[in-house]
Amino acid sequence: MAVTGEAIATIKAMIVSGELKPGDRLPPEKELSERLGLSRNSLREAVKSLEIIRVLDVRRGDGTYVTSLEPRLLLEALAFVVDLHDDSSVLEIFEVRGVLEPFAAARAALVITEDQLRALSQSIASVDAAAPIESLVEHDLEFHRLISEAGGNAYLSSLIEGMSSATVRARIWRGITQDGATARTLSEHEAIVAALASGDPERAGAAVRSHVEGIDSWLRAAL
Fold first, then answer.
1. Per UniProt, what is one GO molecular function of this protein (predicted)?
2. What domain range includes position 7?
């Protein structure tokens, strides 16, 4: 296993250094194993591991390529792990959201465009207090995604989206069991848009923090 780890580290170093770039094809297995001083079996295990986490793309009969290395692609493995959460670990997910999403909103407040603000307002207008819970949850996911994307950090946005999708059950549960959940959510979203429009990062971060912590507090009481 140590030898396989060494092979993974070596391939990673080749990518980090720029020797291998997104879309590049790796040298043939025999050539690469000899160059790295590794057995072909160790190299195969390393390639298999890097394929699982979407760093490499093994194309049968064609060769092995470095993927696009886009944040969304690389964070798929994390999203898979998050999807396996249980009702207690979802509390930990909300704790992490309570740290990351206010930061993302603060970033967004400094650079958000009029078009992006308009998209947020349109998302709010797409649902009302009488809308089905599923529609509210769909809006909520889109609303938070738009904010994180507006901040301009693709890794942060992908990380937040991966965690956010894992809390869908909790959001639906809240919508069904808590009186006024839809109206409260929409009101808080409007306050967040106003904070973003003000260009004040502290105000935007505080508005999102209050929103996420409100859900977290309800969930803790419900559990």
1. DNA-binding transcription factor activity
2. 2-69
